[in-house]
Each structure stands twice: as C-alpha cells, then as structure tokens.
Amino acid sequence: MGDRICRVLDLGRLEYAEAERLQERLVEARRAGEVPDTLLLVEHEPVVTLGSGSSDAGEGLKPKLINSAGVEVRRVSRGGRATFHGPGQLVGYPILDLRHHLQDLHWYLRSLEQVLIDALAQVGCNAERKDGLTGVWIRDRKVASIGIAVRGWITWHGFALNLDCDRQWWRLLDPCGLSAGRMASLTELCTQAPSREAVAESVVQRFGEVFRLNVVESDRTELFRASTF
User: Fold this and answer.
1) How far is CA 223 from the centre of its chain?
2) For the segment 96-110, what is each residue's pLDDT rounded down to a tens digit?
3) Which of 21, 88, 169, 192 sits 20 to 30 Å CA-CA off 125?
4) What residues are labeled active site?
C-alpha cells in the first residue's frame, strides 16, 4: 500500500449530467493539486451515452424504443461505444493523476478490470477478462463496462458494474457493440448475489490495493465544503 490518499465519495443516485459536471471540476482541481486522487461512486437515472467509438448516429441504437422509454441519449468524451447507465448499477468515476502512478492507458484499463475482478472474487463471484475486449465477464456474459477519458494525465469517466439491472434497458441499444443478450447482472449469474453495500466496500478496498492508495471515505458535505467547489 502506498502513502498517497484517495478520497472516496458514495453519492448515491445522481443525474448523469450532474456527475459529469462534478468530474470536470474535480479533474481541474486534481491537475492543480488542490484535491487528492478521488473515486466517485454513483447510480444514475436511465441514460444511454455515446463514446468516441460511436458514430454520430449512434450505431445500434433503437430510437423508437428509446423514445417510448423516455431515455436520454448523450454524446460524451470517454472512449468506447454506446453504453447504458441506470438503476441497479454501481458506477465508478476515478479521478486519478497518472503522473503519480504510471502514464500508460493500457495499464490503467487493465488495472480497473483487475479491481473489479478481485472485488467480485471477494464477494463470491468468479469474473474474468475476455481476450481482445474491454470489461469484466462472468463466463460469456458481460457484467461490467469500462470507458475512460484522460486530460493532462488526469483520468475521468470509468466503469459501470451491473448488480441488478432490468434487462429491458439493454434492448435499447447494442451495448458496447454487443448484442443485448451478452449483458447480464450479478443477480443472474452469482449463486448468492451480493448487496450493493458489500460490492461497493469490496471495490473500494481493492481499488486502494491495486493503485497503492490509502482510501479515505468522505461524504458529499465535505466535498462541497472545499473552496475549489
């Protein structure tokens, strides 16, 4: 374990746009050295996001289904393709200064995967990687998507881990370029699905270990008390 601090904030349910604005502010504050490395944990209202790997039309989207469901579609600055965020997920946004870790995006992506694989093993779910694909899988079903952005070697965006998602949402798109049937939640695949609290605790612990950070749990009040916000 390293001697650097990582502040962890579990913000609960948060609109996607608000989380994106918060990340933007934290990226600038981290680059200026005004805040430590930070991990945000959230859950979003239903939204489909299009990363840099998506066409302008958002290939794979089902416009009629999206419109009837009232789901917002947003173009975002992360890598990757179309992804769904919504209830039943644990979403993590690491704001890390890779100048103090390793300035290697491949290493960073693989490290995020390792955090989730280790965390799931700790709560009794055997997850793995798939060659040539980004994310985390249980057997042939994808349970976690990862899409990152980096600005001045400060990371933002991150991962979405499916805990207990309604399968109807994946019918709105080809998630990450895959068929909807390839996506799954822990409740479908784990003999005894862990609670959100147990998964979040395990993710935070393994995040600190993989990135060699001392994690310090904080709260929303402390975040917005800082003069930079």
Assistant:
1) 20
2) 999 999 999 999 999
3) 169
4) 176
